[in-house]
């Protein structure tokens, strides 16, 4: 946990129909424990299907409802391409490093 209200979740392997439910439960658990801001490290995810996209979009919706945010850390090129093609990258920001994402979260919290 980079901060009390932030959860950093490192995802490894395929993010697809077989693994999406597990990720969803993990993210829900983090929010249940007061983490309003979710950072998903996708640097070790070589493939993501529509199930992964749905998890990210649902997490975006749920974090926004509690005044939080979600950010993606260093998506692998194939995953970034999927995010761009589906328009998810227009809604959910990607960052090169965890620190970049934390800085953006801090900036957002300081805005009126």
UniProtKB/TrEMBL annotation:
<dbReference type="InterPro" id="IPR003658">
    <property type="entry name" value="Anti-sigma_ant"/>
</dbReference>
<dbReference type="InterPro" id="IPR002645">
    <property type="entry name" value="STAS_dom"/>
</dbReference>
<protein>
    <recommendedName>
        <fullName>Anti-sigma factor antagonist</fullName>
    </recommendedName>
</protein>
<feature type="domain" description="STAS">
    <location>
        <begin position="1"/>
        <end position="105"/>
    </location>
</feature>
<dbReference type="InterPro" id="IPR036513">
    <property type="entry name" value="STAS_dom_sf"/>
</dbReference>
<dbReference type="Pfam" id="PF01740">
    <property type="entry name" value="STAS"/>
</dbReference>
<comment type="similarity">
    <text>Belongs to the anti-sigma-factor antagonist family.</text>
</comment>
